[in-house]
Structures are given as C-alpha cells and as structure tokens.
Amino acid sequence: MMKLSKFQIILIIIIVGIISSLGTVLLTQAKAKPTGRGITVGNVSVIITGVLDVNLTNNITTFGSYAPVAGKTVIVNTAPLYNATNQFILENTGNMRAKVYLNSSSNASAFFGTTSTGSIQIKTSDNLTGACDGNLNASYEGNISTESTGTTNSLLCDNFDPEDLHDKLNIHFQLIIPSDSPAGNKAANLTVYVTSYP
C-alpha cells in the first residue's frame, strides 16, 4: 500500500471540502422557492383623430346622344343602368359617419338651355349593404340643387357608414330633357360635400 505524503493528505482534504460545499450550495439552490411577483401590468394607448373624407371612385356619367321629339320630353336615367355608361360611386374614405350632399354647377334651365320643364334629378342606393344607415334619397324627385348648403333635394344620405364593408354608395342620375332644348353638348360639374353626423 502506497503511503501518502502530508501534502497529498492536505490536498485530498481540501478537494473533499470543496466538493462537499459545492454539493450543499447546489442542493440549497434546488430546494429554494422563488420569491417576488410573477406578473406585472403595462398600458398601451393611442388617440385616433376623426377624419371626414369621401371620394368619387366613379365620377363620370355619359348619356350619349338623344334627338328631341316635338311636344314630348325624353327621360333617361342610370338606374337601372341601361342608358348611361355608369353611375357615380361614392366611398367614405374617412373614419366618421357623415351627412352627404350633392350640388350642381348648373340648374336645369341653364343645363338644357331652355326655360321649359326639364330636370336633373338624383337618387341614391347602397353599393355595399348598409352603406346608408339613415335616410337615403331613394327616388327621383325635385331638381338637383345649385346651393352650397344642404337642401332636401340635394341630400344623398344622412348617415353614411365609414366601415370598410359598408362604405360605398351609388349616385344615380335622371335627365328629363325638354323637346325644345337646343342642340349641343350639355354638361355640369357636380360637387359632393359632407358634414359630420348627426
């Protein structure tokens, strides 16, 4: 049997002590229970500004050519869509409900060039279901307004929805063309404007 020197014995005692201490630390850590909170609360916030905005995605209606018939008016319209290339389509591109009005740069007399009983009439329908949640101008009547403020005849919808699946309206036009309307190109600029709802 090999005899150990004093130095070797001291070295073995130190190594055994270190291993024993390390084992005790690891065992203590394994048994230790966590302290403190396991949950905390934060907050995220944003301020969204209201935007009142509309856009005419289709903004040209062309009726083509019509020959007057003596003593009779000619009625052409865009609903159903058989006499014109397209009706206007109005999209609520903002994030607010809106009242929608339309006015014309010309009244019927100026448009047709006669004082006879001609008319430019409008009506509105939903392009997407539920686009107008309120009163919709759903029938041709009266005459298009040339006023810059809302009137009964120029109101299209009094509660236009901004949500993406409900935010488009059709604007249809009907012309009652007098038989004595002079020949020539007849055109008017139409302006859509909105105010906040209600």
Helix proportion: 10-25%
Q: What is the terminal separation in angstroms?
A: 105 Å
User: How large a portion of the residues is in β-strands, by DSSP E?
Assistant: 25-35%
Number of domains: 1
CATH C-level class is Mainly Beta
CATH architecture, by name, is Sandwich
Count, helices: 2
**H/E element string?**
HEEEEHEEEE
Low-confidence stretches: none
Q: What about the largest sheet?
A: 5 strands, antiparallel
Radius of gyration: 40 Å
Q: What would you call the shape?
A: rod-shaped
What CATH calls the topology is Immunoglobulin-like
Q: How many β-strand runs?
A: 8
Multimeric state of these chains? Answer: single chain
Topology readout:
Elements: H1 6-31, E1 54-58, E2 74-77, E3 88-92, E4 98-104, H2 108-112, E5 119-126, E6 155-160, E7 168-177, E8 190-196
Antiparallel strand pairs: 1-3, 2-7, 3-7, 4-6, 4-8, 5-7
Description:
- The protein has about 200 residues and is an alpha+beta fold.
- It has one domain: Immunoglobulin-like (Sandwich).
- About 15% of the residues lie in helices and about 25% in strands.
- It has 2 helices and 8 strands, in the order αββββαββββ.
- Strands 1, 2, 3, 5 and 7 form a 5-stranded antiparallel beta sheet that branches. Strands 6-4-8 form a 3-stranded antiparallel beta sheet, with no helix packed on it.
- The mean pLDDT is about 80.
What's the quick description here?
By secondary structure, this protein is an alpha+beta fold. The protein is built from two helices and eight strands; from the N terminus they run αββββαββββ.
